[in-house]
Design brief:
By secondary structure, this protein is α/β, with parallel strands linked by helices. It is 50% helix and 22% strand. Strands 1, 2, 3, 4, 5 and 6 form a six-stranded mixed beta sheet that branches. It comes from Lacibacter cauensis.
Length: 218
């Protein structure tokens, strides 16, 4: 047990030192104002056949809006935590970002194709945050639930079979996020997440945006 606690403590120290070094490196870029660009949600794979194209489009729009709100809230609220209480960074409000982009006639899809340096000038900030989530559908909730139910029945009726349950994924999520100043990625992160029938998209997204906020260097 002592060895486990020692390893955990060592891991926390290493993680804390790495984060501190990253924060110091990024602070050299003199970033004081940041705008969070509209996040890009891309959906691929085995999209449930019961959904019409219109319903799929509506689902993506709804989930994308949720992703945008969650990312802004987590990044801004994280400023008030112990790790970032000395940060001088100010995040532009989503309302102002949206207003400035609309004044230029820029849709979300247009923003995704634009040079971040140009967007920084339009938004009047030092740097921008861009995020993309690709959700690759594997199974429907109903099918995943069925797999887990069947696995549970087999575990009870066939001694020693040991089928894992509660792990039937409905989708894999590939996440990337970057802090960009003058066309240069000052900081970036990539990681994966997943959903299952008992761990829906919005809950998964909340964990994604919290992970981004925890890793964010300012």
């Amino acid at each position: 047990m002592k060895h486990i606690l020692l390893l955990l403590s060592l891991s926390l120290v290493i993680s804390s030192c790495a984060r501190k070094k990253m924060m110091e490196r990024v602070q050299q870029y003199n970033i004081r104002t940041i705008a969070i660009l509209p996040s890009q949600l891309e959906v691929t794979g085995n999209i449930p056949k019961k959904l019409t194209p219109e319903q799929v489009k509506e689902m993506i729009a709804k989930n994308n809006a949720f992703l945008n709100r969650a990312l802004y809230i987590d990044l801004v609220q994280y400023v008030d935590t112990r790790l970032r209480r000395y940060s001088q960074v100010q995040f532009q409000s989503t309302e102002r970002t949206k207003k400035l982009l609309e004044e230029k006639g820029l849709s979300d899809s247009a923003v995704w194709q634009m040079d971040p340096m140009e967007l920084s000038k339009i938004l009047g900030v030092d740097a921008v945050v861009s995020a993309k989530v690709t959700q690759n559908h594997i199974l429907s909730d109903e099918m995943a639930l069925g797999i887990d139910v069947v696995g549970g029945i087999l575990n009870r009726t066939v001694p020693g079979i040991g089928i894992p349950t509660g792990a039937a994924r409905t989708s894999d999520m590939f996440v990337s996020c970057a802090l960009v100043k003058e066309g240069y990625n000052v900081w970036s992160t990539r990681f994966t997440n997943q959903t299952d029938w008992n761990y829906p998209f919005q809950q998964s997204i909340q964990n994604v945006t919290r992970a981004i906020a925890r890793r964010f260097p300012l």
